[in-house]
Amino acid sequence: MFFLILAVFVLGYVFIALEHNVHVDKAASALVTGTLCWALFVLGTHDVPAHLMEAYRAFGGEGHGGLAMFFEHRLLHHMEEISSILFFLMGAMTIVELVDAHEGFRVITDRIRTTNKVKMLWIVCILTFFFSALLDNLTTSIVMVSLLRKLIADRPTRWLFAGMVVISANSGGAWSPIGDVTTTMLWIGGQLGTGVIVSHLIVPSIVSMVVPLAVLSFRLNGDVERPQAEQDEGWDPTTPFERNLVFATGVAGLLFVPVFKTVTHLPPFMGMMMSLGLLWILTELLHRSKNQEHKEHLTVVGVLRHIDSASVLFFLGILLAVGALQEAGHLVLAADWLRVSLNDVYLIDLAIGLLSAIVDNVPLVAASMGMYDVIQPDQVMNAWDAMFVKDGIFWQFLAYCAGTGGSALIIGSAAGVAVMGLERIDFVWYLKRISLLAILGYFAGAATYFFMFA
Does the residue 319 lie in any domain? Predict the structure, then answer.
């Protein structure tokens, strides 16, 4: 059953990758893969796996209904994390869509006057890099895709820019405690401090973005075609005041999310829901005097009809499948193999980063945090132990690799999955045109870190 679960995951992965060839939406393939992996795990497991024995004892074992109830408990445990991500994604998508409906992004797009492809690509990537550090890579990718739709009419060119947005968002998130969920995990877990994350990882992260950006710049030429402004016989749906107010409130709401999390220690989706609720109230009051026809698409109720629900379901399926692999022990086995086979912190972290392009980086980093304890300074016995102290080399390099390695494949990061869903980017297209650039940037940034701190 162990190998059957892995086979189903790989087969589902192939169907997702070949979405346009098999003519089956990737959300459907992901949902079937995720649910089938869990069904096979539950039906094929007749005893508690060794890596779950401690969790089984904490659950209460036979006193709480035995194995069946325990597996249900484990599924619901994963659903807590998955639901947090999905509600966060839905909230961010709704806020961005609402700002877009008010034409709020004209505040930025009107200031980007160049039509030169190379200049625009650098502007977009730099904006993405720093937005990702302030917000997070998932939210930033959603915002930047909306901007690209206002800047570029040609779909192939927009896909190329969107691919670089994925790389830039992941690179920008790696050097900020709130920019990527794995960096946040290491920050909250006590493995890394804020100062070390920023000071030690910003330069390698910049390199991981600039190298593929520079390579792609030599391949681009000409100008982009701007999309035609959509206006109904000269009628503008919003006033400049309304556009600016909704844009400022939307951005402030997104920036509020990490602040809310830091102050309350509640999951990020709670801050996102609060921001959405406040923006909802604002837009209802702002358009209360307009007739229903004019204000219908300017309210959250109207905007919700345009949210890409298929992307949310795709996310659900992928995360369910990864959760099943984690429960079945595939990820633990992979982590043990890395430790035994490589026996070098740099190689282990590099491998984890590349693995995160195939399997979600969150359980990989969680497995690493579980396998390696933070060693106290007075317990350091040798050079290997010194790598695992707080702010040690292993944790620093892990944050970089797990944050940027997912760019190698479009479904290897939350930012990539969001962009894939919003722009309907083909998996194979990304593999051919962006993956090598992402891997080149990944190793360039890794080499930079090695020469700076090894």
Answer: no
